[in-house]
Specification:
Blueprint lengths: L17 H17 L10 H29 L4 E5 L3 E4 L2 H8 L2 H10 L4 H5 L5 E3 L3 H15 L4 E6 L7 E5 L2 E5 L12 E12 L2 E6 L5 E6 L2 E13 L6 E10 L6 H4 L4 H4 L1 H7 L12 H30 L5 H4 E6 L6 H12 L4 H11 E4 L10 E3 H7 L1 H21 L4 H7 L2 E2 L5 E3 H7 L3 E4 L2 H9 L3 H6 L4 E3 L6 H7 L2 H11 L20 H26 L8 E6 L8 H17 L8 E6 L7 H18 L8 E5 L5 H10 L2 E4 L11 H7 L3 E4 L5 H8 L5 E2 L4 H9 L5 H6 L1 H11 L12 H9 L5 H20 L1 H13 L6 H13 L11 H6 L1
Parallel strand pairs: 1-4, 1-12, 4-11, 12-13, 13-17, 17-18, 19-20, 19-22, 20-21, 22-23, 23-24
Antiparallel strand pairs: 2-3, 5-6, 7-10, 8-9, 10-11, 14-16, 15-16
Helix pairs in contact: 1-2, 1-4, 3-20, 6-34, 10-12, 12-13, 12-15, 14-15, 22-25, 22-33, 23-24, 23-30, 23-32, 30-31
């Protein structure tokens, strides 16, 4: 253990290249003048941001074109990542960091009288995703570039990202997220890359000269998909990949004949219908029109993407027999599941393949990532909607299912229930197409996203399919990119890591293990606490500016930031806050551990119960924060409009990470990894990747509570009434009674009746059942916090033992086990992995 000879935990800054600095200043000023049309005296901060971004983009494009040429010249296999969400956030500092140009640009802008941090705030946060799914896709794209895997990401260029959340009188309100309002300097439109995507109409069948049946689809509507490319830079700028997003337009944007009759709205109706496809992420699917638009979105981006990659393959190879050898297509969740039917359609209808050959190529090309065990979240579509929108695809699905059911019959003769369970068509609920089943049958590999999740897939949602196709399910535990979530989000901790672990930690996260040697060193602990405190001061400042609430940066920052959903159990967290509030009121003179409970997250616009939970959090916060007995003891804050940039401020400041989903319901989580990497202790259930985090950081450095997945199943089997656990817990009974009697809603005592009723009688998510265990675990956290050296040591060990959760490791596993593509030898972990062994 280091003692007085401990190093000075600081890294000296190398001198800047003055010639390079001069070149960058000149490039920024040139862009300001020639691309923006402003001189320095007229320019706004946003003008300077665009000029700097364009100057940086020029340097990225040179690398991009070079790496593209190299991969094509070498004939390397390519990966195509299809995702309806890409939560990429801000790209400016991300690209600067990965290109190694951050110090030069910061100095250049400073010399020009502009602050880099000010410009960073000018960039909109591209919220092209809802949460973990889209953020994972963004991390994976960055890791593929870092590992020098030739790859394309495919998605939709939404005009408006996930809604902008405003909290008004405690209620969530949704407003458009106009992320393209000032243009987007990162994207390059490809007007020459346009594909026709068809909907509706009818299908006719005929027999060709060789006696083979042919299907001809006569669509009723055509939409054009136009490509926009965004460069995704790998670490140290060695490789650049493309994120290709599709925008929708009508082939004829204006019916002049109709316009001339005076029907001005009708003249552009086709354009409005086409543009609705890319207008907004996740339209409300409560209405038939919303459901149809969701299906149109999914097919639109799948069809354009597959047409694009097939054309790219034909240009390089001249034939499609080798498609699976040169292209790996990853379906991120069920949203791109139509790729199974669409690729079959392209191979059979457009390129004349026979069914069996096309099916083998399709299965060998496609693989599917499942992200949920919730049956209701595995998309299904009514047959009637499918038949009206995609008649040819429904025919193909029927034939896929026929062959598939014949295989099921051969495997389990006469077992009608088994055939019904594995069928792509659900006959029970009004005849619907099961998209998860389609993706499973049409892929050669299906992966879960944590060890527990992958095993539960075999036992629950895909139990029968796993029996029919054993060996297809594999596990690929999620990961995060350390470049953004450590280096960018937490520069102070990064400097400490460099000083203690060596410069190699920037390239190989397994070097973090060397930090273990300093976990008990008093001097290092002090530096570690100082970094954390600075991050907490920054977050406290943000809370003060946005909410007008003053919080103590020395208090324990207890954080739960994620999509608002019942299974993620923000309700359990706020229920514990109520019980703690009552305890403080009962004993105001007791020496309470100061705590700030921080919430952030959006509820889906149509998810009324989740929006009611947001209202409860805000009402409880208003009561607690205005009570003089809680001053210096407890604060509750809900920070609105959660996004990637806000997470980059909150996560480095967190002391306690709330990962409290109902066991068996969170597939993986990636927020849990980001928090632990930044030195927060986890309080959580044995769910998702929490299990693997516990195994890596050590059970003594994480706080686990509550039922495990099997116990949850057993409890549910006994019923959902929670009267028994409420009777045994006076503090829980008191908290529920406070909610239902209007202690936090005196203007409307019955406002939260639905919540109190669920807590008592419909405890599906085990909020009441797990409450006592959670409350006791939180009091254990209080005791740990009171022992500062022990807490700091555990926090340091969390950081030191998180290397395995790098998305680089995840992508290597995909590359080796699913895609069969090589990764860069230079990107392989080195000495630190050996030391860890």
């Amino acid at each position: 253990m280091p003692g007085s000879s401990s190093p000075d935990f600081k890294v000296p800054k190398p001198p800047l290249d003055e010639l390079a600095l001069s070149e960058i200043k000149s490039a920024i000023v040139a862009k300001l003048t020639l691309a923006i049309g402003k001189n320095a005296g007229q320019a706004t901060k946003h003008d300077w941001y665009k000029a700097a971004a364009l100057a940086l983009r020029d340097r990225i494009v040179h690398r991009w074109l070079m790496t593209e040429k190299e991969s094509y010249d070498s004939g390397r296999k390519r990966v195509y990542y299809l995702s309806l969400e890409f939560l990429i956030g801000r790209l400016f500092t991300d690209a600067l960091n990965n290109m190694g140009l951050m110090p030069l640009f910061e100095a250049a802008l400073g010399d020009l009288g502009v602050g880099l941090s000010d410009l960073r705030n000018c960039e909109p946060d591209a919220a092209l995703g809802n949460g973990g799914l889209g953020r994972l896709a963004a991390c994976f794209m960055e890791s593929m570039a870092t590992l020098e895997i030739p790859a394309f990401g495919y998605g939709i260029r939404y005009d408006f990202g996930l809604f902008r959340q405003i909290i008004s009188q405690g209620w969530q309100q949704e407003y458009p997220d106009e992320w393209l309002g000032f243009g987007n300097p990162w994207e390059l439109q490809r007007p020459e890359v346009v594909y026709q995507v068809h909907f509706g109409g009818s299908v006719e069948h005929s027999v060709d000269a060789r006696g083979r049946e042919r299907a001809i689809w006569y669509p009723g509507e055509t939409v054009q998909a136009v490509a926009y490319d965004t460069p995704i830079v790998g670490w140290r700028g060695k490789h650049v990949n493309a994120l290709r997003l599709w925008s929708a337009r009508a082939p004829d944007p204006l019916r002049i004949d109709v316009f001339n009759t005076g029907d001005y709205l009708g003249a552009s109706a086709h354009e409005a219908r086409a543009e609705a496809i890319c207008k907004f992420l996740y339209p409300n699917d409560e209405s038939p029109a919303g459901r149809e638009l969701r299906l149109r979105q999914e097919y639109f981006f799948v069809s354009a993407s597959l047409q694009d990659l097939v054309q790219r393959h034909l240009n390089a190879e001249g034939q499609l027999r080798s498609l699976a050898k040169k292209a790996a297509v990853q379906l991120n969740d069920t949203h791109p599941s139509l790729a199974v039917a669409e690729l079959m359609r392209l191979l059979i209808d457009h390129h004349g393949m026979v069914w069996d050959d096309a099916w083998e190529i399709t299965k060998a090309t496609l693989s599917y990532t499942n992200h949920t065990l919730l049956p209701e979240a595995l998309e299904t579509w009514p047959i009637e909607l499918f038949e009206r929108s995609l008649p040819r695809h429904l025919e193909i699905i029927y034939r896929i299912n026929e062959v598939h059911l014949n295989h099921a019959e051969a495997r389990c003769p006469g077992d009608i229930d088994f055939r019904a369970a594995v069928s792509v068509i659900d006959e029970k609920g009004g005849r619907r197409v099961r998209m998860g089943h389609l993706a499973f049958i049409g892929s050669h590999r299906i992966n879960g996203v944590s060890a527990m999740h992958s095993e539960l897939m075999k036992e629950t949602v895909f139990h029968d399919l796993h029996h029919l196709y054993p060996g297809r399910i594999t596990n690929k535990t999620n990961g995060i990119t350390f470049r953004r979530w450590l280096m960018l989000a937490n520069p102070g901790l990064t400097e400490l890591a460099r000083a203690t672990c060596g410069e190699g930690v920037l390239d190989d996260p397994t070097y973090l293990v060397r930090m273990e040697d300093y976990a008990g060193d008093a001097a290092f602990q002090q530096q570690f606490r100082q970094v954390k405190h600075r991050n907490k001061v920054a977050l406290a400042k943000l809370i003060g500016e946005r909410l007008g609430i003053k919080v103590n940066a020395s208090a324990l920052f207890d954080v739960q930031i994620k999509r608002i959903h019942e299974y993620k159990r923000q309700l359990l967290n706020v229920l514990e806050a109520i019980a703690l509030y009552h305890a403080i009121k009962d004993e105001p003179q007791r020496d309470w551990v100061p705590r700030v409970k921080i919430f952030a997250g959006k509820a889906a616009a149509s998810y009324r119960y989740a929006k009611l939970i947001i209202k409860l959090i805000n009402d409880v916060a208003e009561t607690i924060n205005s009570d003089p007995d809680t001053v210096g003891r407890l604060k509750v804050v809900f920070i609105p409009d959660y996004n990637v940039s806000l997470a980059e401020v909150i996560i480095p400041a967190a002391d306690l990470s709330e990962q409290i989903s109902t066991a068996g319901m969170e597939a993986s989580g990636t927020g849990n990894m980001k928090f632990a990497l930044n030195g927060a202790l986890t309080i959580g259930t044995l769910d998702g990747a929490n299990i693997e985090i516990r195994d890596n950081v050590g059970p003594e450095n994480i706080a686990i509570f509550g039922m495990d997945a099997l116990e949850v199943v057993q409890r549910r089997a006994q019923g959902l009434d929670a009267t028994d656990v409420i009777t045994r817990s006076p503090r829980l009974a008191r908290a529920i009674r406070a909610i239902e009697t209007g202690e936090f809603s005196r203007d409307d005592p019955g406002r939260f009746a639905a919540i109190s009723h669920a807590l008592r009688h419909l405890d599906h998510y085990m909020v009441s059942a797990d409450f006592e265990s959670y409350y006791d675990c939180q009091r254990g956290i209080d005791a740990r916090w009171s022992n500062s050296p022990a807490w700091t040591r555990a926090a340091i060990l969390n950081v030191a033992r998180m290397a395995w959760f790098s998305s680089d490791r995840t992508i290597r596993e995909y590359a080796e086990d699913i895609w069969n593509v090589p990764t860069s030898p230079a990107s392989q972990p080195t000495l630190a992995r050996q030391a860890q062994r």
